[in-house]
Design brief:
Length: about 100
């Protein structure tokens, strides 16, 4: 009978609401950079180093992924933190968006 009383008080819909609120408040966004036929590898690498604070190795790896896959997530974070980074990348003539 004790099991029945525990099950009777369990309300999964309340738990779902709490979990959804937790996910929304700590949502991680992606800063995605897209490939183009205009910018050089060196320009993209230098931009990622300057704007996103990537190491040279990180920037080069991301640039190769952008080249071969067409896009690459270069940074994860809160939308507010990624917004100035996206603007800095776009100011250098590189396509980027926050997803």
């Amino acid at each position: 009978m004790a099991t029945s009383s525990i099950l009777a008080t369990y309300a999964p819909e309340q738990e779902s609401e709490v979990l959804l609120d937790d996910v929304q408040s700590s949502e991680m966004n992606e800063l995605v950079v897209y490939n183009d036929d205009v910018n050089t590898f060196e320009h993209v690498i230098q931009t990622l180093i300057q704007v996103c604070q990537h190491t040279p190795e990180q920037a080069e790896q991301c640039t190769w992924i952008i080249h071969f896959k067409g896009k690459c997530t270069v940074k994860l974070g809160a939308w507010e933190d990624l917004k100035p980074l996206r603007q800095g990348i776009c100011d250098k003539g590189i396509s980027a968006e926050i997803l």
